[in-house]
Structures are given as structure tokens and as C-alpha cells.
Amino acid sequence: METESASRQEIRFMRLPEVLALSGKSRSSIYAAIKKGEFPAPVKLSTRSSAWIRSEIAAWAESRVKASRVEKR
């Protein structure tokens, strides 16, 4: 039986410049998409610091690829 900590996936935080590079979106479009619920929201790390969870950004990117590859019928 796995322990709780062993079963959890490692969490890696990404700062905004890395999110911008990975997503290909601008800063303003990222925040607009967050407001609409269309992009993962950042996690507050401290009073003046936020970051995104890498696995959530990767899942968002994968969903965009899948959506663009759907055959139109």
C-alpha cells in the first residue's frame, strides 16, 4: 500500500515568464482567460508572490492541442 506522500504527484511551480513562453499567450490574455475560467489560475505563494502549477498548464496545453485536432464532421 502506498503512503499518501508517495502517491501524490510532485508539484512544480512556474512563474509568469515561463507560463507566457509555454502558452504562447500574452499576459493580458492569460488574465482575461483566468477570469472567464478558461485558463488555470495561479496559486498564491505569499503576499506578493504567485505561481502556476506546471501540471495544470500542461493539461491546458494538451486540451488545446486535442481541440485543434478534432475532425469536423
Automatic annotation (TrEMBL):
Pfam families: Phage_AlpA. Gene3D superfamilies: 1.10.238.160. This is AlpA family transcriptional regulator.
